[in-house]
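step 4 of 6: structure.
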Amino acid sequence: MLRLPQFRFHLPGSIREALSILAAEGPEARVVAGGTDLWPNMKRRHQKPATVVSLMSIEELNGVDVADTSREARIGATTLLEDLVRNPALRARFPGLARAVASISSPPLRHMGTLGGNICLDTRCTYYNQTEDWRRAIDYCMKEAGTVCWVAPSSSRCWAHTASDSAPMLCALGARLRLLSADGERILPITELYRDDGIQYLTKRPDEVVADVLLPTASDSDHCRSSFWKLRRRGSIDFAVLSVAAAVWTDARGVVSDARIFLGAVGSQPVAVEAATETLRGQSLTEERIAEVAQLARKLATPMDNTDFKAQWRGLMAARYTEAALREIAGLETEVLPPRHATL
Amino acid sequence: MDEPKIRDQTAALDPTSGRYVGRPFRRVDGRDKVSGVTRFADDLEFPRMCYLRLVRSKIPHGRISSVDFAPAQKVDGFLGSLVGTEMPETFGILPVSQDEHALGIDRVRFVGDPVAAVAATSEDSAYEAALQVRVEYEPLPTIASIEEALANPEPRIHDYGSEGNIHKRVSMRFGDLQSGFEEADLILEDHFFYEGNTHMALEQHATVAVPEDVDRITVYSSTQTPHYLHRALTRVLGIPAARIRVIACPNGGGFGGKSDPFNHEIVAARMALKLGRPTKITLDREEVFYCHRGRHPVSMKIRTGFSKDGAMTAQHLQTALDGGAYGSYGVASTYYTGALQTVTYPLPRYQFDGVRCFTNKPPCGPKRGHGTPQPRFAFEVHLDKAAEKLGIDPADLRLANLATPGQVTANWLRLGTIGLRRCIEAVIEGSEWRQRRGNLPYGRGLGLACGAYMCGAGLPIYWNHLPQSGVQLKLDRSGGVALFCGETEIGQGSDSVLAALVADVLGVDLQDIRLCVADTDLTPVDLGSYSSRVTLMAGNAALQAATRARNLIAGAVAERLETAPENLVFAERRVFDSAAPEAGLSFEDAVITAEARFGTLSTVGSYIPPRSPGKYRGAGVGPSPTYSYSAAVIEVEVDPSSGIYRPVHVWLAHDIGRAINPTLVLGQIEGSVYMGLGEAMMEEQAFRRLPRHLSDALVHKVPSVLEYKTPTFLDMPEVTSYLIEDPDPEGPFGAKEVGQGPLLPVPPALANAIHDAVGVRIDQVPIQPYMILQALAAGDKGEEARFGPIGFPEVDFGETLIVPTPEEGGDGRAINDPKSQRHSKMRGDTGTMSDRDKALKTKDRALTTK
Ligand SMILES: Cc1cc2nc3c(=O)[nH]c(=O)nc-3n(C[C@H](O)[C@H](O)[C@H](O)COP(=O)(O)OP(=O)(O)OC[C@H]3O[C@@H](n4cnc5c(N)ncnc54)[C@H](O)[C@@H]3O)c2cc1C
Ligand code: SF4
């Protein structure tokens, strides 16, 4: 069996205690929530923190408050994914998010994994997510200890891809994060948390903890509909090789007031299909408009050969899946494409 | 040609009288397995036990220049180390391929090849210490594929084999091929590729070696073949076999992946002896990918002549296997890619050429269906194309061309009973083939394919005339029956099958049978759980031992009851006269009576398969006491805009002879469908070579259980299984195999269904969505709507053995093989047997007993 390296483990009961440990230990410390990403990574020696601080005994980081639609919704960072899947209010208000969360890995992992962990999930690459022995055999790569990116050897950056299923959906919904550190609190739009770099994929400092996810309330006249489509090999367990998260706000007549589409797993951060907003705003969601947006998505997806399936085919699928997600929102028939996300 | 020995195992007893045989009884190890009581090798603990870890090569090919343990020795709990020179003797499963060292001595041949070992007081320390060992290498150029192996004879990965990096070449012709093709109305030629894949047993290999006394050792291991491990340990450790005890723990799945002797097993034993401590090793999943021995990647070219009605006039099959870095079962695998083409449909003239290459990748070997799923895929898709060209329904083409029971094929295999017609009829009825095929909307399709497999390999892996299975029964005044057999429970249910056979013959309950299996000190030899041999071979041995025990008891009881032994019935834990049932004895009293009459009671049974008529070099691969048959129809849904597809339903009928336990048979069928779909849809033991100007790396692409894709429950369609029963005289109560056969029709049935759904031919597996899209696009451009290999590598197969067929009046020998003339008195002559010349010269009794 792969074994964990040695480290000090803290299980603080309050956020203050956690933040002060983090401040004292500096970058040598790491937080852990469900550990479904961090522990496997440590077993493979990707991360070798001297200290690990668990957030799981801090009550104030846990909990969901979405039922009251007149208020901003709040989800605590250590809320278990399975608790979100089973929350009827969340399903009703943010069906796309509920589906995204339900599509994360498998039931046992959703009983351990948290939303905060999913948001901060390490980027992935098949040259990277391997054991220490294997990585030695390729002399490592740029993301860690090596000098070359094996996916694109002439490139000066790492192309490891974002793997979080909730991230593109939260971006599309316009979520904001409450970050805490010993220095205090700040609120950050989630889109600003991510960076287009496979190594430094988060903008936050290591001592900053994600405390809550805040989801805005749209004005009464606006109706928000969301959808999430995930492409993966199998019906469960697998990370996305492509995901499409779409949120569309319409007025009473069905005219689009705002629309945001993000692609997952085809870049180092969720990729915004920015032109889609312009294309759709003030229009109704017709087949033609949807097809146009699908082509925009196709151009923005830069899948690399660092995950499952042929990269080129994943690019083609970016158009197909964007189309399917928007058609679902528009209430149009979606083709027989067997969906690979959870059926919720 | 020898006449087959007449022995009808179905006649032994009336199976309808028993409590178990033919009924879905609960398996004997079921409760323990579901409640976590079963002790697998990794569950074993011993006082003072230490932990072993292997240091594996990080380069794909090269010489080892130095191994430095100094940094590892500093790790807390470090106990000791080993290098290859401490175990210089080679080993390997086949006597002709003794090409492995327990730890590399001078060379490493793939990333993952073991070079050193460390032991420590905890698993953590062993892991850390192994990471600290510094090994220096001198790299050598690498070979990554069949084509590269053929093109680059130097540097040789091994200095034995046919030549260069060709491990084995085979070429044999049965009958006048040319006139066969001349008679044909249609000649079809196709190219196929079947990607390699691995077993993915849930249990990772584990071994615990426990030293005892001076120079005695017990090795517990998750192995399918304790007997062969016993031989390898004897050879490498240099200790007499009598002082080595191998116990195979119940395996958490094997599928062929635990049937070689492995480095870690031998090193654990050596380390245990060196440190004087019990030593445990449990491989991590990545290491299991390096042990591999899975499905060979095979390129194939198949050319067949058909007459208008679909009958085949001749076939020429060529296969090229990517063997990986060691021999393993590879010579046998090579023959198997050709041997069973003849057993389903009459093939009057047949030529088979095969070649196996060495490459710098983990060694391939036997996986469920050993060597036959690849050519079966090619054959069954090829037939689908022929049916289309000839305008015949693919089901009718097969139904009109079925092999004949008892027939000797062109390549000299004697067939047994054949339930294939009923199999095909069952699946076409179940799937409503006649009504629905061709009438489904675009995007939906049905595909049909068949398959056949051996019920145990006719010959053992090393040359001998000894029983291939032995069973011993011990009965005493307790009324209990102890059953000793070397067979290994790998999850297939063999313990339950043997217990049920004995329980029914003696009329006792399953609970009265105490099983002691797979222990080389205590149990008679059984060759192992491979080649679907256990139910038939160990089953027949058990039947013989039980019948002998019954006869003994019947003799004594008959005297006491003053009746004839033939009148006695053994049932419900009693022995009684059928004419006066109330006057009988309890089974316990019956045994006491017999023990008083004869002394200590013990009986034995053993099994040697019938001789095969083939006498040419290579004839040892393929013969079996009888063959099982299967047919499958798969319904598939294909999205033509993405190429994504989904099997919707599988109907599979299997010719089981007689089901000893129908529930276990269903389990094997469903498991085979699952595994077959995995291979057809997604599984790939794929490799990556880094850009050559930057790196020499050649690594397994994704040695992890998450990234090596096998289907989940959600990907598994519904399966309807049909058990076709037609008792075979060779099998115990008429039983045939089911462990491997039902996998065979699955990949080609899927490819045929995809063709029916959207009109494209995907001539390789796994079938990826992009391949379907690409084939559809080609079709749209007016090109052939196909994805697959376009050629077959340039191969020199060497001189072709010419073997006249039975129809041509042959005698089973080749007419142009000087070697086979010389040894014509020897039984068979196969590429997989040990070097008999050597055995004869050294007068090795174990190898030449006759
Ligand atoms: C087999 C397998 C399949 C998976 N499949 C999927 C999938 O399909 N989709 C998917 O999205 N994910 C998948 N995952 C990844 C993982 O299970 C989920 O992303 C999960 O949500 C991670 O949450 P966690 O609480 O376990 O994170 P942890 O492992 O505890 O943490 C992950 C990272 O986030 C940091 N972190 C955690 N919480 C906070 C916080 N509150 N503030 C700041 N930093 C924090 C940690 O330091 C760490 O770097 C899979 C994992 C496995 C092992
Ligand atoms: S994208 Fe390149 S640098 Fe980044 S993890 Fe993969 S191989 Fe390494």
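step 5 of 6: annotate
 - The CA atoms of residues 27 and 205 of chain A lie 9 Å apart.
 - The mean pLDDT of chain A is 94.
step 6 of 6: archive
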